[in-house]
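Milestone M4 deliverable, item 7.
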Amino acid sequence: MKQLMQGNTAAARGLYEAGCCVASSYPGTPSTEITEEAAKFNEIYCEWAPNEKVAMETAFGAALAGRRSFCGMKHVGLNVAADPLFTVSYTGINAGMVICVADDAGMHSSQNEQDSRHYARAAKLPMLEPSDSQEALEFFKKAYEISEEFDVPVIVKMCTRVAHSQSLVEIGEREDDIEVPYEKNIAKYVMMPGNAIKRHPIIEERMRKLKIYSDFSKMNRFDDGKSNKIGIITSSTCYQYVKEACGDLYPVFKIGMVWPLPDEKIKEFAKAVSRLVIVEELDPFIEEYCKSLGIKCEGKNLFPVEGELNQNIIAQKLLNAKTTGKKLDEKIPPRPPVMCAGCPHRGLFYTLNKNKCTVLGDIGCYTLGAVAPLSAMDMTLCMGASVSALHGFNKALENYNGGSPAGSEKIKNVVAVIGDSTFMHSGMTGLANIAYNQSKSVVIILDNSITGMTGHQQNPTTGFNIKGDPAGKINLENLCRAMGFNRVRVVDPYNLKECEEALKEELAADESSVIISRRPCALLKYVKHKPPLKVNENKCVGCKSCMRIGCPALSIKDNHAHVDSTLCVGCGVCEQLCKFDAFESTAKEGE
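Output delivered:
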């Protein structure tokens, strides 16, 4: 039976059909839906782990116990999981283990562009790369076969376009659950130096066998073309772009197993064409490999090393065509991202901006606090970096001129902001560093009671698991106090006066402190809102003070403030900024 499926949904179906039993992931676009969809199958135990390192170690533990396992993450998440990744390559597995990494060329929702193929080569692990939903299902199933045949975790690399596009998928039945007995093997699984050094030659021999496997794998295939003037080697979503732009004009070598690459097949293909062009996104990974084989080829001299490719770029470079398809005559106005109406972070960021604070930020939807008119963020690096960087920032200035008062004066308005999910991901170790090494730092945890940026996934502070069932809940106040903070307070970000008083008091304190800005995300279905506000035009003088918070429900019409009642949630933050009491509730009497 065939179904229209998103790539991530098909990947989850592949996990189900392959008999996967345990899936542990951390949400990150564009990989999130794989685990969300897998959780719909009762046969697969699924969970959101605190971070990607924990997820990978959990998946390894499940594979060690003898059951097929999975962990998924986005490209920057693989950086977090790199520690276990490199060593699990040495230990190998017991039952099959599949790791999915989803790259985000074009940075649709990421802080960098990163080519994860380098991880497969560096960690000496096989990597598969599907180009559509059907291949996503098939490759995830094939990954378990390779994993168990070669005693190795297998990486499946997705990308935004494959993960979120839809195509027809032929679905099948679930395999019988794999149950491999666990047997104690200290030499294989205890990676102290004496054992690890003996495992390295085994890994190198495994790579030689995998290279032979790649040369004979049907995942790497030839598509015939009418003309041998140009031959194209490509993979992933670039294969779809090439086929749409060029059709069957040129022969194409479509690579599905991108590491190890198939030497003999590449050489065979190169000999059969007059000109060899490599079409790949981001780094010249395949191109440089072909050149290392002594093969003359082109690639990044034609195509950019940054951003996504598309059909138009390929048609322009290979067919000398200006464009393919149609373009809109009208220019679409830009639509920059903005925090939602009623976002609980808005009041807190307004307070930080008003007090001219230097704000070291973190990864989450609250990163939008950097956008005008709030402009209340000075730095965003990676998950958890806000807390660690704050400590370093303040320590550097505490020791300014030998710890003179000038240094203390410079740090009086510096804070870190971090979301509740991000704090659980990697903020706790930075907070422990502040407690241990005693910098005078103010950390603000933006607790919106959900993982907001990736689509409302649960986390260890919410009290619910991936399926919405009750789960263990970590109390942030108790946790921070247990880590050594005497000053821990909770504020409501809708209350501007309360936020400002807390901020000033904690910045003036002689010790480090934690402020928890707590109010649930305004988009959560179970959050009840107040009636929307309206503007009394007889009182509004058009001063635009309310526009300083950047709420999308507010605008100026005919020199007066205007509230979009379809967006407004009645949070009242704008109301607190108006000196003329122009904002009124639309609630009827008795409501």
